[in-house]
Write a structure and sequence with these properties.
five-stranded parallel β-sheet, Ribose 5-phosphate Isomerase B, Chain: A, binds D-ribose
Length: about 150
């Protein structure tokens, strides 16, 4: 995967987003596409999830979404076909969601996870790969669920 990533947050995730962007750029040498928000004015997390996830789908890159708890923004992201968004508050989950679920978007809670743990979760997510094999069949079943819901691929 290219060293480029899409990121977005609502106001509840804004401070953590700024920390994660600096970490990605300075420590992980990633190019970061920041889709907002750009200050602490109140915005609606489904709008940010939609913008980031559409860009993730278009580019094939990973995405990071942050709101206060990470819950609203991850629920929103998972409504979008082709997005497998994992809300993680520990490194083990971040590792396993890449290995087993082939997650393409990581969600974090700006008010629930401290910046150092969040950076470690991000690094773990970006340095682990999908196992395929029996997990491929299961991920394909997630895609089938999407098709059943929408009647389209
Ligand atoms: C915004 O106040 C807050 O509701 C949002 O950031 C998030 O925590 C929702 O799940």
């Amino acid at each position: 995967m290219e060293n480029k990533i899409i990121i977005g947050s609502d106001h509840g995730g804004f401070d953590l987003k700024q920390e994660i962007i600096a970490f990605l750029q300075n420590d992980m040498k990633y190019e970061v596409q920041d889709m907002g928000c750009y200050d602490k004015n109140s915005v609606d997390y489904p709008d940010i999830a939609e913008t980031v996830c559409n860009e993730v789908k278009k580019s094939g890159l990973y995405g990071i979404l942050i709101c206060g708890t990470g819950i609203g923004i991850s629920i929103s992201a998972n409504k979008i076909n082709g997005i497998r968004c994992a809300l993680c508050s520990d490194e083990y989950s971040a590792k396993m969601t890449r290995h087993h679920n082939d997650a393409n978007v990581l969600a974090l809670g700006g008010r629930t996870v401290g910046p150092e743990l969040a950076k470690s979760i991000v690094q773990t997510f970006l340095t682990n790969d999908f196992d395929g094999g029996r997990h491929e069949k299961r991920v394909n079943k997630i895609k089938l669920l999407e098709e059943k819901q929408t009647g389209s691929k």
